[in-house]
Amino acid sequence: MDAPAVTSRRGRTTSLAALVCRPVVAALVLLVVYAGLSLLNDTRGYLGTDTGGKVATLKVMDERGDFDPDVGYWAKSQDPDGRVHGLYYTAKIGDRFVNVTSLPALLPAEPLWRLGGYRLTLLLPMLGAIAAAFAARALARRLSEGDGWPAFWLVGLASPMVIYALDFWEHAIGVALMAWGIVALFDAVDRGPRWWRGALAGLAFGVAFSMRTESAVYGLVGTALVCLVLLIGRRNLVGALVTGVTATVGMVAMVGANAALETAALGRTFRSGRAGGAASAGGAQFALRVKEALVTSFSPFPSLDLQSYVLAVGLTAALAYLVWASATRRDRTLVVGAAALVVLIYLFRLSSGLGFVPGLVATTPVAVAGVVLGWRDVRSRLVVALAVGPLPLVFLFQFPGGAAPQWAGRYILTSGVVLAAVGMARIERVERSVRTLLIGLSVAVAVFGVAWLSVRSHQVAEAADRLESRPEAVLISPNGFIPREFGGSYGRKNWLSSGNAVDLQFAVDVVTRSGSDSFALVDLDTTGDPPQFAGWRVASSEIVPFLAGVDFRVTSYEPVP
After folding, report:
1. From CA 255, how far away is CA 273, in angstroms rounded?
2. How far apart are CA 130 and CA 127, in angstroms?
3. Which residues are within 8 A (CB) of 267 and not within 5 positions of it... i.e. 6 or more apart?
4. Is the domain of 403 the same as that of 507?
5. Over 90: is that where the pLDDT of 334 sits?
6. Spatial CB neighbours of 467, under 8 Å, sequence gap ≥ 6
7. Is pLDDT at 246 greater than 90 in this prediction?
8. How many structural domains comprise the chain?
9. Which tens digit of pLDDT belongs to each residue from 129-150?
10. Which residues span the domain enclosing 285?
11. Per DSSP, what are the bridge partners of residue 475?
């Protein structure tokens, strides 16, 4: 009687696994998980200030009932150019004040916002994360004899994509497009160069460019690498020309389409100008860029201090040795030692309290397996090159100054997804215990990130409530990014923001000319005495909690009698 029961249970288990691994069902499972996790977050707090700017725009669009991304400006009479607009990085375009980085991500979100508010707009990044997981599966299937589902579930449930699925940022969609572009480029070599494969890759990178500037680097470098492989490795001049030309045409066509959309909506382009600004600044602040590259590539700690660099390098070296030694069955003692070091570093980070984990390696340890194991295989090597090759240029041209307060190296997320797919395709080569450790660490960091985003969103919302309830007519932030944290309540309080001391004085002048009878300075610098301004005197000063370990000093000013 026992044998049939066991067989039955196995049959049910197999049937369940087969059901979950059907594409539509798998996508629905991820969507349900993401939707459930999103309920842990407050809708007025986000992963970063860029999200706040988008939310503020959607909020104003909904209030007006149109698709115009003009966020307005309460002090436009005193500051017609928007020099100290409350939403930092707001651009004056004609008579509009625009705080937008991507129209193709914003415009589809407006009807979703109208139907279900912020939570429903998260459908877009959730779909992006699901598409990225399917791209990982596609790559893993091409590189192994398996069905690629382990890569799908790792990327979908235990990678940085989980975090970016829960925040209205265009990263998830951009990563999905770039990852599928890499799939098309790989196919041009592995399955033969066809004009439509190059065109698909170019279209994917071109659409991604409307959301993520680094897409240009991934697309151009990836296309160049594939053309070199076709030309030199395969001796296929025609294939190289066809792939290069069609990929370039596809990318240019989508960049042009986005420029046309921007011109139609706003009267001028701005995405290309943003990319041009990044390109013109490329190479500047080289020492800082090197430091930030180390942090966003490897570090589990949101810091640019020496300890962060040492632990980042130590973690990466230990993971790489652990994978290599396990795959080649080296000395068991050294393998155990490397594993112990890895676990200790992760425990040290997790015990340090909730916060950002900025490094790709720290959030996606399977990516190390992708590099170590993938480079040893001819077919996998091309995919590794497509993921790693663009990184130096990405670091050279990315916007500097925000390496620590971010999750998983947000400019190089595509490399993480692709390398994770390679790692999962080759992970059978390492011992079971090492596999379990790598996947377990990925799950632990993902859970840590979900918890951090939840706590952060509630802390931002609580800080917004405290600041909105203050009696001052205007709030001024010397750190321009702070008011963008409160995009969910944009318009309920008059804010001004500045990026330097000259603009701060100008902001005070704007308050004076507006006729406001008071203002408060919301400053992250809680040391020293509050600054003095002609015609105003300090009425009071207090510390207001913001994030864990970060406070505001809110200083109230009133006119001098």
Report:
1. 12
2. 5
3. 93, 94
4. no
5. no
6. 475, 486, 493, 522, 544, 552, 554
7. yes
8. 2
9. 999 999 999 999 999 988 999 9
10. 121-430
11. 495, 520
DSSP bridge partners of 263: none
- Give the pLDDT score at 282: 56
pLDDT number for residue 343:
97
Buried b (16+ CB within 10 A) or exposed e, 387-421: bbbbbebbbbbbebebbbebbbbbbbbbbbbbbbb
User: Which residues have C-beta within 8 Å of that of residue 531, sequence separation ≥ 6?
Assistant: 504, 521
Residue indicated by tokens 């909690």: 545
Last residue of a domain, one of 397, 430, 463: 430
Q: How far is CA 411 from the centre of its chain?
A: 7
Residue 15 has pLDDT above 90, yes or no: no
- Does 279 have pLDDT greater than 60? no
Tally of CB atoms within 10 A around 22: 11
Residue labelled with tokens 């900025």: 358
Residue 138 domain-assigned (yes or no): yes
As given in the structure block, the two tokens for residue 138 are 């596609």
- pLDDT value of residue 280: 52
CA dist 401 and 405 (Å) reads 9
Give the integer Cα–Cα distance in Å for 488 and 30.
26
Q: Where are the alpha helices (DSSP H) in 47-194?
A: 49-64, 103-106, 109-121, 123-143, 149-157, 160-165, 171-190
In a domain, 24, yes or no: no
Whether 277 shows a pLDDT value over 60: the answer reads no
Strand 519-523 to 550-559 pairing: antiparallel
Question: Between β-strands 494-497 and 474-477, what pairing exists: parallel, antiparallel or unpaired?
Answer: parallel
**Other beta carbons within 10 Å of 29:** 18
Contact, 56 vs 113, CB < 8 A? no
- The CA-CA-CA angle for residues 471, 476, 477, to 5°, reads 130
Mind spelling out the 3-state secondary structure of 430-499? CCHHHHHHHHHHHHHHHHHHHHHHHHHHHHHHHHHHHHHCCCCCEEEECCCCHHHHHHHHCCCCEEEECC
